[in-house]
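Office hours follow-up: a student asked to see two folded examples consecutively, so here they are.
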Amino acid sequence: MSNILKLLLISIFLVVTSSPAYSSKIDMEKGRKSSADEKRITHRKKKLLSSLLFLNLLPHKGKAVSRNTLSLTDTDRTLSGSFNVRAVENIYKKYGFNKEVQLSLHKFSRRDYDFQQRLELSGKYVKQMAGIFSEKGLPKELAWLPLVESGFNPRAYSHRRAAGLWQFMPRTARQLGLKIDWWVDERRDPVKSTEAAARYLQYLYERFGSWPLALAAYNAGEGRVNNALDKVGENDFWSISATQHIRKETKDYVPSYIAAAAIATHPARFGFRRIDYRKPPKFDEVVINRPMDFDVIARLADVSVSEIRELNPELRRWCTPPNALNYKLKVPEGARDRFLTNMAEIRGDELELASFYTVKKGDTVDKIAKNIGSSIQDIVDRNGLGRKAAIMTGKKILVPLEAQWSRFLKQVMH
C-alpha cells in the first residue's frame, strides 16, 4: 500500500478523533446523547485503530514503525524464517483477512504481556514443530497453532479435558494413536503430539479443501462444520461464520489463529521487539527397562528431579511406566553416560523397586500394605485405585518393595 494512502488514513483518524463534533458527542450530557450514537462512534474508532494496526502504523502503544527501520534479532530471524512483509501477506492470502482478523490483531497487540509470554515459550518447541509439518508437506506456519490452543504449555489442561500443546480431547488423541493411561499422557509429549496434530490437520484439509475450514473443524469437530456447510450451501468458512450454525468460539478461533501466526511470523512489525525466546531443550535419551522412580533417576544422572520432569512432561506419576518395557527417557544433555555408569554399579535385583502382586481371595489394600510393610496410600497412588481402593481377586497390582527401596537409596546417596 502506498505511503500516500497510509498518510490519508492517518489524517482521517486524526480528523475524526479530534474534531469538535466528535468531542461534543463524547462530552454530551447523558440526557441528550443516544447510546446508539455512542456505540457507532466507538465502533468507528476501533475499526480505524484496527486498520492502522494492520498497516503497522500503530503497532504497539500508538508508536509508528517505519518499514525500513525494523531491527530483528537473530532469534527472530531463526524462528520466523522469512521476516519480510510478504511472509505476513502470504498468511493472509492463504487463510483470509477481514475485520475479524483485524480485531484479533488488535486484541493480541493490546494484551501484549500475555501474548509475549506465549511467544517466548514457543522458542522451546516451534522450530522442531515446523520441521515436522514441513516433512509432511504441510504449511510451516501451522506450528504457531499452539499460541491459541495451549500457549505452548505442554501441561495445559482445559475444563473439557483437552490436554497438551495441541489440546486434544482423550477420544481424538487415542484415535490418532496417542497413549493415555494412569502413567502416561502422550498428548503432553511435544514430538508425538505434534506428529499426531500434523496427521489430523492433513486429514481435515483433505476432507474440507481449505485451511480455514480445516482449522474450524479442528476446533469444533468435523460434524459441526459439515452440518453448517450443508445448511449454508457454501464451502467457505467465512460464509458459515456469518451465521448462527457454528459457535462463537469457532468463529473467533480461525481469525485468532491467523492473527497469532501473522504476529509470530514478524513480531517486530506488530510492536513485539524484545522477545526472550526460550531455548529448545538439549537432552540425551536412555532406555529404562524397568519402572524407576524420578528421584533415583535424578541421583544416578546427578541432576534435579525437576529437570527430569521438565524433559518428560508426558509422564504423569513419580516414575517411568511399569507397563512399558524399554521406555525411552530424556535426561539433560551430558548426563547419559553418568547415568549409565552409576546404574552399572548397582546390582540388578536392587533396582527392582516395585513388583506386581496378584490379588488373592480375602485380600484388601490394608492387608496387603501391612504384609509388605508399605502404606495404603502408596499402593492406592501406584495403581490409581480411587477413593474406595477396591481390588478384585485375580487382579495384578503394583506394590513397592520397601526393603530394596531403602537399601538402594542408601547406596545411591553414598
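And the second, which I mentioned at the end of office hours:
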Amino acid sequence: MPKRGPKPKDPNKPPPRNTRGPRPEPTALKVLKGNPGKRALNEHEPMPRDANLVIPEELDEVGALTWREMSGELSRLGLLKGVDVIAFRSYCEAVSQWVWATKEIRKRGLLHKRKDGVIAISPLVKLQRHADETMRRYAHEFGLTPSARSGIRGAIDDDGTGRVQVLLGLKKNG
C-alpha cells in the first residue's frame, strides 16, 4: 500500500488567498493606542460624519440598553461614525440574542430530549455561541475587548480636547 501523507507543495501554484495578515485597524484606534507600530498613519482615510445616536427602533430592550450605554462613549472616542451605525446596531442585536439565549438555557437546561428519545445539546447553545462570536467580532472592531484596547491611552486631555480629533485634524489644539 502506498504511503499516505501530505501532498508535496506545487511551486507553480499561487499562495492561498486571504493570507494578508491581521485586518488593518481604523486610524482613530491606532491613534488611541499611540501608533505602536510607528508606521505612517493614513492621512487620506475617509472621515465620515459623526453618528446619529438615536436608538434604532428595531432594537429590543436589551439592544437599546446596550446602545444607550456604549454609543456615546464610542462616538466621543471617534470610534462610532455615521457609517458605522449599522455595524454597531448588529453588535447591539448580537448582545440581545446572547442574553436571550443564555436566559433560555438557564430555564430549559443545556440538554434536551429529541423526538427520537436521544438526549442532545440544546439548539439554544448553538444560537448562544453564534451570538457570542458575532458579539466578539464586532466588539473587537469597536475596541471593546481587552486585547483591542490594551495599548489605548487616554483620548481626552485635561482641557477636554479630544486627542484623536486633534491628531486626525478634526479639531485644533489649543
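Two things to take away from it. The chain has one domain: 46-167. The longest helix spans residues 85-108.
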